[in-house]
Design a protein that fits this description.
heterotrimer, A alpha/beta (435), B alpha/beta (775), C alpha+beta (214), A: alpha/beta, 5-stranded mixed sheet, C: 214 residues, globular
Chain lengths: 435, 775, 214
């Protein structure tokens, strides 16, 4: 008996799981009916009681976030769903929405009802055409079914839902940049305070939540806060999607309670690529400091991962075996941050520009050991000095990789270049090996 | 009454300080004399926290922020303890780190950069940066400067992306013609390639740029800051009253910058004020006195010219025409010269369209009034009538816009064309046919917190000023009269007008005359109310006036001026450059421009704006000095021959506490059923103080004829087609731009090169015109 | 301001209005409007920027500022099939670098260039949220999973030959760049029900939980 707890993914194996009929066959939209019969504050309380924490990376308690919205203020409120999944390694919301967009629509209806929003937005990244189609279709079908629009289910609740499609900017996953982007500006982060709960979209009280957070709401309403809270650990409650990718025999999505370990997940994924061993991995995407095989038994919950020096993030477990050059991996991530830096603040904009050049030189065997100290000092000047967390994300892989693999950096210098064969780490190499 | 302000006490670097709630940490530190380095921060722009240079360590009630905070974005709180770079190693290292980052992509071209020597980046890198950069890599490179307008150049390599310029353009000017483009390290300030940065306020971005990324074409590579001698000065271009700084090198004006006067222009000015000063160095400046002999002007010595002027004026009935650009002291001299030396009240500063209704209005409601910019700040409603603030007094525009942005100030614009400027103020537009403004004014609901801003051209709409007077007295609303020219308000106060003596003393009031006569040590003053400019010329044409003293007037600025009067009378001209007056003058005396003399202007507020002589080695004399010589020669001395002397004497006359003139209401007579003209001057045009400024004039609005779509359809013309506007007097042809103009009205620029409606059509606002398609 | 371009037909203009109607404030419409411009023009043209500025009462500089911020808005025409090879760390290491190099060589074009026949443009892209299907190639932002150098070459050959291969997870045949851009402008093309609901890796955990796989 595995630890797996398929809830969100429970019916993804049915051919029509993405349709309204497929969703309703298993009780889809019943939670909405239940919620709309409740007092909105009771819905907020239920989500608070469940202990659901934001699944987008920061892990902020979802119910508390909703509770910050001032009620009775005679202002428009907005719900904005962050479906801009772009963090390297993160691949959970995209398959979720492809397989079951309706669970998000239902979650949006319940959540909007709770915070008294009459217009909700889903900000989806622009690089996933088919997911966009399914989202558009699901919203259309929900309108036709009377779940969206005026006077939903005759309860006097009105809700418009607009799908907003991005156009390629990682920074728009940052909630205030997302709001600026949704308002039609360059997606650059805003000053906080004011926080979105007070002045968010169009300067109105706004909740911004990740796809998975909102998609988890119907199950909480349906099965109860206690049921949800009974899963997971004391402070990290519930189930979630863990995404394993890279050098594992069977990559994929695993829905399990928080607190499961990589060792357990690897076992489910058929282990590290046959004939190879784990070298390093990310617990929650490229912005989270890397782990090594020393962390196989770290419980994957917010507290434990943090205590071990990284962050749970998006639970994007990218697995790299010993054929992988850590410097190559880190350089590529750094190039990503340079490409995605919005340009607003100095440390991130200039720091990533500089870091890439030093790392490239090191990869080519140019430089000296002193450059490692310089790299770390630049990271120190970047980490916590930039406007938003993108700068922190850029520093994390460099700092953590030097901590664990300093010798490998030096080896590039003594070797006069990268000592690794890049072909050895490709999928083709492994399929050849397997054949 | 000032609202009670909550105070906050905090500690910065060990020093306790108490400041008003809402103060940013960086400003509280300034008050202690602690300079936290910064780039994106600007006190008049909204905080952005982008450059990260001002990071400090902060704790509140013992709880420390986990990382350094940008002091330009954090308001003070009670119990806050701030440690700047002076007391915190973390803050110091953070700032050094940011400075090093800023220099990663900054070129090392300080030796050839205009900003070198006055560059915040250079200065702060020296005081707060590391001695040497550890960056050994490749800097990003861009094509060297882009012309983002004919006046402003952008060197993207030097830009540190502080976004001051883009924030200014959007927040303050309302002209987001520049914005950030691209992303990350390739982010750059950008225009859209087809639409240049043609904002009237673009020069401010050059001034607030903390590096040499934005430069003005006119000043580029001309000087080093340390070679310049700076003089505080005042703008002579309009009545806004901007404080300026004039920078001179080797007796030549090289540039002018906006001065910082929080009560007036804050730290801004318009591009005309900044970049139009070549006229003082024009090659055709009149440099010596001239005397007409056998029909030809010849150079003369000063004594010869003064003698000729004296002879020409002696014993004649004379009139005085004063241009709208004289300083207060010069205007005072003209006013006194007319009364004391020429024995007449026939003096008028209004060398532009004017009316008796206006003169009465000015005497009754404007002279001596004290409506201020600060009244706009607290107004509940601002009404604009006969006035387009962005074109006709740009700092008034910025001040109104500030209040619109800050607190949603209600603005109503009574006009015939809903301009972009009005739209930027979110103004409620009341479209009227020129001539019928009075009805729209009377229909307003105002309070004693309202301000009615009246432009000088409202005089062209009979009854409109009367309607303003009436609604103001009924509601208690304040009247702000904003003339276009810098000298008009001062000239009004100085008594350079036929119905007032200095200090708003009515000519018709015997006590006022006695008062002034006593101050001037003369037996009496003429008691007849004087003629206005137009009537003076008409009287000259009829021989009733035989001599004219004309200072800085272009007759083509007037409506249908009587040139016969100029031809027949003895004509004494005090002037800088040749004009239609010079062509007819009998004696010409060259005078000093504003940089060659000291003095003061009075802004539309009635605020005295004193300036010093910027060019010390001038050969030119002020008008008042020359008038004093002639007055002496005529045996009627003015009693002063210096600016200080004139100012001191005028000062003693400034406060009249006697009765004001009364105002008799004129009724409106608008009945436009035909096509009528609407027309005013735009900021950048064919004005005589804008000559030799090709870069500046490149940013002027295109001269077009504006009609609405309905009118265009009836004429069978589309956007861009040529139309001809004509009167019995003449015709002019322009391309059409379909605009939000009221029915049956065609709007034309009054003084564009291709569209001088007064001169070419002889038509005022509300005049009947004909419009046809094509030439 | 540049004058309104006359090049757009009433249908296009009314679709711009339909986009504006989705939002409480018009400026929010700028991104889908840019996608719609790409659906018509194949990239963001000057006329496209100008018509958006006109419709939203913005300056052209403001529209340009937005258009140049997001990488999906192209300054040059995309191929009929815009091929993106993920070369972010995980895909790169799993073979994305080899695939990208192989395609450049095979097509004879560099990053962000287009083949002479206008059929295919090539770009290396960042993480596309399909890491469990690495290495991934996107065609007009449809998923072609678990690619090899050879499969990717075959893919582009098919695209150039006018065959419309089916994405691994997507509609039954790959749309053109303009067709896909229309979807990204928020206009449903009615093809949501085509293709699988999920790929095998997506279902792996579920199947293990149900005992269908080990």
């Amino acid at each position: 008996m595995s630890k797996l707890t398929p809830v969100l993914s429970a019916h993804w194996d049915e051919r029509d799981s993405h349709t309204l009929a497929g969703y309703q066959r298993h009780g889809g939209y019943n939670a909405m009916k239940k919620a709309l019969a409740m007092d909105p504050d009771a819905v907020i309380q239920m989500v608070k009681d469940s202990g659901l924490r934001g699944r987008g990376g920061a892990g902020f308690p979802t119910g508390n976030k909703w509770g910050f919205i001032p009620q009775g203020d005679n202002k428009d409120h907005y719900l904005v769903v962050n479906a801009d999944e772009s963090e390297p390694g993160t691949c959970k919301d995209t398959p979720l929405l492809m397989a079951n967009p309706h669970v998000l629509v239902e979650g949006v209806i319940i959540s909007s009802y709770a915070i008294r929003a009459k217009h909700a937005f889903i900000y989806i990244r622009g690089e996933v055409t088919h997911v966009t189609r399914r989202m558009l279709q699901a919203i259309e079908d929900a309108y036709k079914a009377g779940f969206l629009g005026k006077n939903i289910l005759g309860k006097g609740f009105d809700l418009e839902l607009t799908l907003h499609i991005g156009a390629g900017a990682y920074i728009c996953g940052e909630e205030t940049a997302l709001l600026d982007s949704l308002e039609g500006f360059r997606g650059q982060p805003r000053l906080r305070p004011p926080f979105p709960a007070i002045a968010g979209l169009y300067a109105r009280p706004t909740v911004v939540n990740n796809v998975e957070s909102i998609a988890s709401v119907p199950a909480i309403i349906d099965k109860g806060a206690e049921w949800f809270a009974s899963l997971g650990t004391e402070k990290s409650k519930g189930f979630t999607l863990f995404s394993l990718s890279g050098h594992v025999n069977n990559p994929g999505q695993f829905e399990a309670p928080l607190g499961i370990t990589l060792r357990e997940l690897l076992e489910l994924a058929g282990g590290v690529r046959t004939g190879h061993r784990l070298k390093f991995w990310t617990p929650g995407g490229s912005s989270t400091p890397i782990f090594t095989d020393a962390h196989l038994d770290t419980p994957l919950d917010y507290e434990s991962v943090s205590a071990a020096g990284s962050m749970l993030g998006t639970k994007a477990l990218q697995i790299f075996d010993e054929t992988t050059c850590v410097l190559r991996a880190v350089l590529r991530w750094t190039e990503f941050y340079k490409h995605e830096s919005c340009g607003k603040c100095t440390p991130c904009r200039e720091g990533t520009w500089w870091l890439v050049q030093i790392l490239r030189d090191l990869e080519n065997g140019k430089g000296s050991e002193a450059d490692l100290a310089k790299l770390l000092d630049i990271c120190d000047n970047l980490l916590g000095r930039s406007f938003c967390a993108l700068g922190d994300g850029a520093a994390s892989p460099i700092m953590s990789s030097i901590m664990y693999f300093r010798d490998e950096y030096i080896a590039h210098l003594t070797n006069g270049g990268c000592p690794f064969d890049p072909v050895a780490s490709t999928l083709f190499a492994s399929s050849k090996a397997g054949a | 009454m000032q609202p009670q302000t909550d105070l906050i006490t905090l500690i910065i670097d060990g020093f306790e300080i108490t400041v008003p709630k809402g103060t940013l940490v960086i400003r509280a530190a300034e008050q202690l004399g602690i300079q936290i380095p910064r780039f994106c921060d600007h006190p008049l722009l909204s905080p952005v926290g982008a450059c990260r240079q001002c990071l400090v360590d902060i704790e509140i009630n013992g709880r420390a922020f986990p990382k350094p905070q940008a002091s330009c974005t954090i308001p003070v709180e009670n119990g806050m303890v701030v440690k700047t770079q002076l007391t915190s190693e973390v803050a110091h290292k953070a700032q050094e780190g940011v400075m090093e980052f800023l220099l990663v992509n900054h070129p090392l071209d300080c030796p050839v950069c205009d900003k070198g020597g006055e560059c915040p980046l250079q200065n702060q890198a020296m005081t707060n940066g590391r001695g040497e950069s550890r960056f050994e890599g490749k800097k990003r490179t861009f094509e060297k400067p882009l012309h983002i307008s004919s006046q402003v150049l952008l060197d993207r390599e030097r830009c540190i992306l502080c976004a001051r310029c883009t924030r200014f353009s959007k927040e303050i000017a309302g002209d987001p013609f520049i914005d950030m483009g691209e992303r990350g390290a390739l982010q750059q300030v950008a225009i859209y390639e087809k639409d240049p940065f043609d904002s009237y306020f673009s020069g401010n971005t050059v001034q607030i740029c903390p590096v040499g990324a934005l430069t003005g074409a006119a000043y580029r590579f001309r000087s080093r800051p340390f070679d310049l001698v700076s003089t505080p000065s005042v703008c002579e271009h309009c009545a806004s009253g901007c404080s300026l700084r004039t920078d001179v090198r080797r007796n030549k004006t090289l540039r002018r910058l906006a001065g910082n006067d929080p009560e007036v222009n804050e730290e801004w000015n318009c591009d005309k004020g900044r970049w139009a000063f070549q006229y003082t160095m024009a090659k055709d400046r009149i440099t010596t006195p001239l005397i007409r002999e056998n029909g030809v002007l010849r150079e003369a010595s000063w004594p010869e010219a003064i003698a000729a002027a004296t002879k020409g004026l002696q014993g004649k009935k004379a009139g005085v025409l004063v241009g709208g650009r004289t300083t207060v002291e010069d205007a005072y001299a003209y006013a006194k010269f007319a009364r004391v030396a020429l024995g007449t009240n026939d003096v008028d500063f209004r060398s532009r369209p004017h009316s008796d209704e206006e003169r009465e209005f000015l005497a009754a409601f404007v002279a001596g009034s004290k409506v201020r910019y600060s009244d706009i700040d607290v107004a509940d409603h601002v009404v604009l009538v006969g006035f387009e603030p962005e074109e006709e007094s740009p700092i008034v525009f910025l001040r109104i816009r500030k209040q619109v942005s800050k607190r949603g100030l209600a603005v109503t614009a009574i006009s015939s064309w809903n301009t972009r400027g009005f739209k930027k103020l979110g103004a409620k537009y009341v479209g009227v046919v020129p001539g019928s403004e009075a009805n729209a004014i009377s229909a307003l609901t105002l309070t004693n917190q309202s301000v009615i801003v009246v432009g000088e051209r409202l005089s062209e709409s009979t009854g409109a000023l009367s309607a303003v007077a009436e609604i103001a007295s009924k509601s208690g609303a304040k009247i702000a009269w904003v003339p276009r020219r810098a000298g008009e308000r001062g000239a009004l106060e100085a008594g350079a007008i036929g119905n007032l003596l200095p200090g708003a003393r009515p000519v018709a009031d015997a006590a006022a005359r006695v008062d002034v006569a006593a101050a001037w040590s003369v037996d009496s003053l003429p008691a007849t109310i004087g003629l206005d400019s137009k009537a003076i010329l008409a009287a000259a044409a009829k021989g009733e006036i035989q001599a004219l003293v004309v200072g800085g007037v272009d007759p083509f600025d007037m409506h249908d001026p009587d040139f016969a009067g100029l031809d027949s009378a003895f004509l004494l001209s005090l002037e800088m450059r040749p004009s239609a007056i010079t062509e007819r003058a009998d004696v010409v005396l060259p005078v000093a421009s504003v940089v060659e003399k000291s003095g003061s202007f009075m802004s539309w507020e009635g605020r005295t704006r004193t300036f010093e002589q910027a060019l010390p080695e001038s050969v030119y004399q002020s008008d008042l000095y020359l008038l004093s010589l002639i007055a002496d020669s005529l045996g009627a001395p003015l009693g002063f021959n210096t600016v200080r002397g004139a100012a001191r004497e005028f000062g003693t006359l400034a406060n009249w506490d006697g009765a004001r003139t009364t105002f008799s209401r004129k009724s409106t007579s608008a009945s436009a059923t035909t096509t009528v003209l609407a027309s005013w001057r735009q900021l950048l045009d064919n004005g005589s103080l804008q000559i030799n400024e090709p870069n500046l004039s490149g940013t002027a609005r295109k001269a077009v004829a504006r009609i609405n779509a309905k009118f265009a359809q009836s004429l069978g013309v589309a956007d861009g087609d040529l139309v001809t506007v004509s009167t019995d007097h003449g015709a002019l042809s322009l391309n059409v731009e379909i605009s939000d103009v009221v029915d049956n009205v065609v709007w034309l620029p009054r003084n564009a090169v291709a569209s001088q409606s007064l001169r070419m059509l002889g038509a005022l606002n509300g005049a009947e015109v004909k419009v046809r398609k094509g030439l | 301001m540049a004058n309104t371009p006359q090049t757009f037909d009433a249908n296009f203009l009314s679709r711009l209005d339909a986009i504006i109607a989705r939002y409480p404030r018009s400026r929010s419409a700028i991104m889908p409007m840019l996608h719609l411009v790409q659906a018509r023009e194949g990239y963001v043209t000057a006329e496209g920027i100008e018509v958006i500025a006109e419709k939203l009462d913005l300056t052209t500089a403001e529209v340009h500022a937005v258009a140049s911020f997001y990488t999906q808005y192209r300054r040059t025409p995309a191929g009929e099939y815009h091929v993106g090879v993920c070369t972010n760390t995980l895909c790169a290491i799993m073979g994305g670098d080899e695939i990208f190099a192989g395609l450049k060589d095979h097509l004879g074009i560099e990053n962000n260039e287009r083949t002479a026949d206008g059929k295919v443009s090539l770009e290396h892209i960042e993480c596309n949220a399909a890491c469990d299907y690495a290495p991934v190639v996107m065609v007009n932002w449809e998923f072609f999973d678990n690619q090899t150098v050879e499969s990717a070459k075959t893919l582009v050959d098919d695209l150039r030959a006018g065959k419309k291969p089916a994405p691994t997870r997507g509609p039954d045949s790959v749309p053109t760049f303009k067709e896909a851009s229309e979807v990204l402008a928020g206009f449903n093309d009615g093809r949501a029900n085509e293709g699988v609901q999920a790929g095998e890796p997506t279902l792996l955990g579920l199947k293990i939980a149900k005992g269908e796989r080990k």
